[in-house]
Amino acid sequence: MLDGLVALPCDSRNREQLEWIAEEVVDAGGEASVWVGQLASRKQERELAGRMSESTAGEYRALLDDVNAARLQPAGRRSRSVKRLRREMRRIRARDYFPPPERESAQRAVEELAARIEEQVR
Q1: What φ, ψ does residue 33 adopt, rounded to 5°?
Q2: Among the ranges 9-18, 33-42, 45-54, which has the highest mean pLDDT value?
Q3: Are 78 and 71 in contact (CB under 8 A)?
């Protein structure tokens, strides 16, 4: 095992998960600690948040492209695609600490596609 460092935005979910991991490491006979740090300036914080937001915005744009492609699929495939799109949406949101505007568009598109499929089934 090597030394390591993990840096994540400090929200209650991340902190709790890291504390659980550290506790498991200690229980297994290792050493672990959770450190809380902050960037040296507000400018650095804004730049980092911007980079993280732009990264997830790109993922949401790709998800929107997938939704548009799914709209053109045969009905049977669209149902499977919606399940995959919802999983992808959850995966992106799990790392989306600084939500870009694309988040709402992607969420709405996935749910509208799901609603359309449900209407066709009825």
Answers
A1: -150, 155
A2: 45-54
A3: yes
106 near 60, Cβ under 8 Å? yes
Asked whether the beta carbons of 106 and 64 are under 8 A apart, the reply is yes
Amino acid residing at 43: K
Residue 99 corresponds to which tokens in the numbers above? Answer: 């939500």
Q: Please compute, for residue 75, the number of CA atoms within 13 A of its CA located in the half-sphere on the CB side.
A: 8
Predicted TM-score of the model (pTM): 0.78
Q: How would DSSP label each residue in the chain? A: -----------HHHHHHHHHHHHHHHHTT----------SSHHHHHHHHHHHHHHHHHHHHHHHHHHHHHHTS-HHHHHHHHHHHHHHHHHHHHT-SS--THHHHHHHHHHHHHHHHHHHH-
Q: Are 114 and 82 in contact (CB under 8 A)?
A: yes
